[in-house]
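Quick one - inputs below.
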Amino acid sequence: MRLLAILLLVLFGVGGAAAHELRPAYLEITETAPEQYSILWKVPARGEYRLSLHVGLPDVCAEVTTPVTAIVEAASTSRWNIRCDGGLAGQTISIDGLVATYTDALVRVMRADGTAQTARLTPDFPEVVVTAASTAADTARTYFLLGVQHIMLGLDHLLFLLALLLLIREPRMLVATITAFTVAHSVTLAFAAFGFAAAPQAPIEALVALSIVFIAAEIVRKQRGHADIAGRYPWLIAFLFGLLHGFGFGGALREIGLPQKDVPLALLTFNLGVEAGQLLFVALALAAIASLRMLLAFSAEQPRLVTAYLVGSLSAAWFVQRIIAFGV
Amino acid sequence: MKALIVLAMLLMAGACGPAMAHAPIKGIGTFYNGLLHPVLVPAHLLVLAAVGLLIGQHAPRVSRLALPAFAAALTVTLALIDASPGALQQWPLLAIALVAGLAVALARAGSLVATALALGAGVAVALDSAPDGAPDEQVWLALSGTGLGAALVVTYVGGFAARLELPWQKTAIRAAGSWIAASALLVLTLDLFPTASPPA
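Output:
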């Protein structure tokens, strides 16, 4: 009985250790000729034990060479060649056994034209559909959505817009100001993305935070009856700060990376995505302000002041945090 | 009023049950998943629309008190469930939607009743909004999104209803209230008496 208990403990101990492997597996499929592929498959291993993960290839594929396996640097590495009738585009590749683990698998399919598709497979989603080389429409859609995503996740850019909404009360001036902001950040985004101009990202991020503090302070000053240049010509201020924000967007685009082809299209659609996200935010914010006025029947002055102080305080904290982060 | 709030809180606490999974949308981040949560869960949308219509129908007399009460109840309860996550069964949400829908259909609600319903809705929606699958350190982000999303739904619906002043528009609001009440009653019946549903 005691022996059985020890045996069970050892068995479960080994199983547990394997099940909690967190290093990802890696599958690289390289198109060597039409319908011909070479495969590199790395599975985390400890000594002679490896995770029970296997590549699930579509039925149209057949092995041309037998897999050659070796244990190299805590990974079981296999290489072999396959032939897939009609190619891999549109076919599903799965990692069998992934659902029973805590690990992920990275899959990279390298096409003959130099483009690549990369996917991270998880225990929840252990398969990927191989796409054909991306078309111009795919690039446009991808970068448009990235642009929307970037502005919607960029709280500092959204707060700058909110501050502009609070500063400007005339609809015509609001349109002119937001247009000026858009034109300005489009210019610097293009310059940064094409490499014509560059600015270090950390100071730019700090200055973006400072630009919000400036607009928040202008709201308070305007409320107190002091109309400065930002109060009289908000579009000019929005244009100048838009140049800064454009460098911020350009930095984000550099991090995402531009595609191997259709670069101007990617840049244009990324910018359009940013604009779409911006307009959506402005529409939602204006609708919320109008609804609150109807429901609470308040004078807009006090809430505007409170919001300006909140936005300004948060941005000032960001400014200090970002200055500290780059060690000045 | 205090007794009513205490009673509502006790009912909510008694109704706590196992968590219901709401699959997150991939690729939009934790905050926006939280933001969309009230729109994607039918029972939440129903109760939020009902409360929005109710406070908008009698704005600003009722909404001046009810909207801040809703926001406060939502914020406090979300903060509490961030510390101690739980989940609510569906029936309290549906019961509030039913009563609020009826109040809209009848076009009769005092400030006290509307505020009590808004408080109940804020607490019930928040209690049922514990995010599934979000990493522990991002739960607060998902809950912040949910709070903003729920508040925006009530604000938009309320603001829209408050703008409708023509007689036929007021009738349309009452019709919407009756549809909400009927939907809530139907689902509530199936939820509370599952055996009453016809065999598939």
